């Protein structure tokens, strides 16, 4: 989360499943919807989730007790159907996902880099 705040990134893209074929592929780095979790000096709130067929969209709020206090909204786009060691069977799903990411990035005033 330090890198996210340092680079002032507001959009995160995740293209892996958490578990595939019974194997952990990614450690969940965010709390469940409506909950907060501390990551070192940062507190992350998972404020909202919207689940779609191929992806999940989340809105996080990251804060840090500092002088001045830090608070930032982060948009997390999680593509859930990209197979390990393969490519998605439906290119339309990938294109829709990319469109959503681009629209989100364009809608932000100073979005910083997209973190993938």
* CATH H level, superfamily name: Protein tyrosine phosphatase superfamily
The class by helix and strand makeup works out as alpha/beta
Estimate the helix proportion, in percent: 10-25%
Strand percent estimate? 35-45%
Radius of gyration: 15 Å
CATH class: Alpha Beta
Side-by-side strand order of the widest sheet: 4-5-6-7-1-8
β-strand number: 8
Q: Please mark out the parts with pLDDT under 50 across 5 or more consecutive residues, or reply none.
A: none
Topology pattern, helix = H, strand = E? HEEEEEEEHE
**Total domains:** 1
CATH topology heading: Protein-Tyrosine Phosphatase, Chain A
Instruction: Give the name of the CATH architecture.
Output: Alpha-Beta Complex
GO cellular component, one term: cytoplasm
Protein name: Tyrosine-protein phosphatase 14
Pfam family, one: Y_phosphatase
GO molecular function: non-membrane spanning protein tyrosine phosphatase activity; phosphotyrosine residue binding
Molecular structure report:
- With 116 residues, the chain is of the alpha/beta class.
- The protein has a single domain, classed as Protein-Tyrosine Phosphatase, Chain A (Alpha-Beta Complex).
- The chain is built from two helices and eight strands; from the N terminus they run αβββββββαβ.
- The protein has helices spanning 2-7, 91-107; strands spanning 11-14, 19-20, 23-24, 36-39, 42-51, 55-64, 70-79, 114-115.
- A six-stranded mixed sheet has the order 4-5-6-7-1-8.
- The mean pLDDT is 93.
- Its EC number is 3.1.3.48.
- Residues 1-116 form the Tyrosine-protein phosphatase domain.
- InterPro entries: Non-rcpt_Tyr_Phosphatase, Prot-tyrosine_phosphatase-like, PTP_cat.
- Substrate binds at residue 84.
């Amino acid at each position: 989360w330090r890198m996210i705040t340092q680079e002032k990134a507001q959009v995160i893209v995740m293209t892996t499943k958490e578990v595939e074929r019974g194997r952990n592929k990614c450690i969940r780095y965010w709390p469940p919807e409506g909950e907060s979790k501390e990551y070192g000096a940062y507190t992350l709130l998972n404020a909202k989730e919207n689940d779609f067929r191929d992806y999940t969209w989340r809105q996080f709020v990251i804060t840090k007790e500092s002088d001045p206090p830090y608070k930032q909204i982060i948009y997390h786009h999680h593509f859930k159907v990209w197979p390990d060691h393969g490519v998605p069977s439906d290119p339309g799903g990938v294109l829709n996902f990319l469109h959503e990411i681009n629209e989100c990035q364009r809608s932000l005033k100073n979005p910083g880099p997209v973190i993938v």
